[in-house]
Design goal:
The chain is of the alpha/beta class and 540 residues long. 45% of the residues lie in helices and 12% in strands. Helix 5 packs parallel to helix 6, helix 9 packs parallel to helix 14 and helix 13 crosses helix 16.
Length: 540
């Protein structure tokens, strides 16, 4: 199907014409023209940076941007309407049920996620846009087949949408045979259909920007914002964006990223799970110096993680930007109060550390955790909406501290390997069913934690890591453990579990290391009701 010169490669789904209007597609084409040549250049720049790191070059603060860091005279825009107080933010996918639950959670902000917690099938991409539009127009109330009602309350949180990152194409929308950037599709459709509605409601079009690796990628987003506002006749600076600092290279350019987005900036977020994955990915072949212990042992108290978060707060508050803390992935288990008590205490401790460090708010993954996080930040903030006045001048920026893993406590254990194997396979199985966020062992797992699981396995095998009981981590041994874990897994669909296992073996035990767990080819086949061989579905 061809609509206004844009080829649609997926079969149509109900109501998609409400989103893919000729005017909206013209808007996407305009943004694509701005983004695509530079996006490809920036992706090549990423590859070059990874190659330099692989050859032994450690990233450092950029000498060519020292004038930005040393200039005390610039600030980002003041907090936008609805973003003054962000003490509790809830995250989650944009399916209909989760949308209502998030909007009724009592959080200050809802991160409406079109990225890591969303399998990018065509149905999910379009239905996500429809759900957001329906929610903003209060048309999202519904009743399930079982008779359970979902209704919006009166007071709703501010909506902040997370589009896909620069590395992900939207394989179902092509211009001249080439896919449009997934981020442009997600941002463009939401902005085109909802920006004026949001402004009329006293808020604005706000975004979380994922997976940025340097300040030039932020500059491209800023140019997209300028063009989008110009095309719709919306005042410059109406858009606001919070950048997730979730790649190791972006951590060396935090002030530069704020600078590039300054009239559209609303802060930075400490995306801890992707940050750990990014470190493993970039330094995976650099030897024992960059080998981390079991995932559960890499806590926010590790010195390199403390350096990252404290420098983030300092950079943000120095420039008048919000610093937002990381995800609490715990999902309450209402049938096990003992498990809940332990987990809630850990959540409380984690949020107390963030609030005490100067963060202005933090993330949770479940409505039941909103009161827990709020109670902590209420104590620290009181009647103040944020901690922007707390400058953290006691923090001295240090680029070497960001990649100094020597003080990280913990071990590599067989139990940790088994956990990674189970999480990896079970998450991929859910992903292939179209569910990008899944609860496993009372934790919300999304693409970020699945990335850690498979990248740790890959790295441990290739550096011949040794477990706490002296076992060398080999491909053969891990394959045996995978066979054992696979037999234990609950089955919903044998075909999907077989696919998930094969995919996990490709990305965790194979010789090659795919940069991301992105499977756009597989999702194209799923849209057509087909089931291809998983090995052919991977995007290298």
């Amino acid at each position: 199907m061809n609509i206004n010169g844009i080829s649609l490669t997926a079969p149509p789904i109900p109501r998609q014409n409400e989103i893919l209007t000729p005017e909206a597609l013209d808007f996407l084409r305009e943004l694509h023209a701005v983004a695509e040549p530079r996006r490809q250049e920036l992706l090549q720049r990423r590859r070059e940076a990874r190659n330099r790191i692989a050859r032994g070059e450690d990233p450092r603060f950029l000498p060519e941007t020292a004038h930005i860091r040393n200039d005390d005279g610039w600030q980002v825009a003041p907090p936008a309407p609805g973003l003054e107080d962000r003490r509790v933010e809830i995250t989650g996918p944009v399916d209909r049920k989760m949308t209502v639950n998030a909007l009724n959670s009592g959080a200050n902000v809802w991160l409406a996620d079109l990225e890591d917690s969303l399998t990018p099938t065509w149905a999910n991409v379009i239905n996500g846009q429809l759900n957001l539009q329906d929610a903003l127009n209060r048309r999202i109330d519904f009743t399930t087949d079982e008779g359970r009602e979902y209704r919006l309350g009166e007071k709703l949180p501010t909506v902040v949408v997370r589009p896909r990152g620069w590395h992900l194409p939207e394989q179902h929308l092509l211009i001249d045979g080439e896919p449009i950037s997934g981020g442009i599709v997600d941002f463009g459709l939401y902005f085109f259909h909802n920006a004026r509605t949001l402004i009329e409601q006293g808020r604005g079009p706000y975004f979380y920007l994922p997976k940025l690796e340097n300040h030039l990628e932020a500059r491209l987003w800023n140019d997209i914002f300028l063009r989008a506002q110009e095309l719709l006749g919306i005042p410059r600076g109406t858009i606001r964006a919070t950048v997730l600092i979730e790649t190791i290279t972006a951590a060396f350019e935090m002030e530069e990223i704020l600078y590039e987005l300054r009239e559209h900036s609303s802060g930075l977020n400490a995306g801890r799970w992707d940050y750990i994955f990014s470190l493993i990915k970039n330094f995976r072949l650099r030897g024992p110096r960059f080998v981390l212990p079991d995932r559960t042992m890499v806590t926010m108290t590790a010195p390199f993680m403390r350096a990252y978060t404290e420098q983030l707060v300092r950079a943000c508050h120095r420039r008048g930007a919000h610093a937002i803390g990381g995800m609490s992935a715990f999902i309450p288990n209402r049938r096990d109060e003992a498990v809940n008590a332990v987990a809630l205490e850990k959540v409380h401790t984690d949020k107390m550390r963030e609030a005490s460090d100067g963060f202005d708010g933090s993330w949770v993954a479940h409505p039941d955790l909103v009161p827990v996080a709020r109670a902590v930040f209420d104590v620290v903030l009181g009647e103040q909406p944020n901690q922007l006045r707390r400058q953290r001048t006691d923090v001295v920026p240090g680029d070497r501290a960001l990649i100094d893993l020597t003080g990280t406590q913990g071990l590599i254990t067989e139990a940790g390997i088994r956990t990674n194997l189970e999480v990896g396979v079970r998450y991929l199985e859910a992903w292939l069913r179209g569910n990008g966020a899944v609860t496993l062992k009372n934790l919300m797992e999304d693409a970020a934690t699945a990335e850690i699981s498979r990248s740790q396995i890959w790295q441990w095998i290739h550096v011949h890591a040794v477990t706490d009981d002296g076992e060398i981590v080999t491909r053969e041994w891990v394959s045996e453990l995978l066979e054992d874990e696979f037999e234990r897994l609950p089955r919903f669909d044998d075909d999907r579990f077989d696919d998930a296992r094969q995919l996990f073996e490709e990305v965790a035990l194979g010789e090659d290391f795919p940069e991301f767990l992105t499977l756009p080819a597989y999702t194209r086949h799923l849209c057509a009701g087909q089931r291809p061989a998983p090995a052919r579905a991977l995007q290298r």
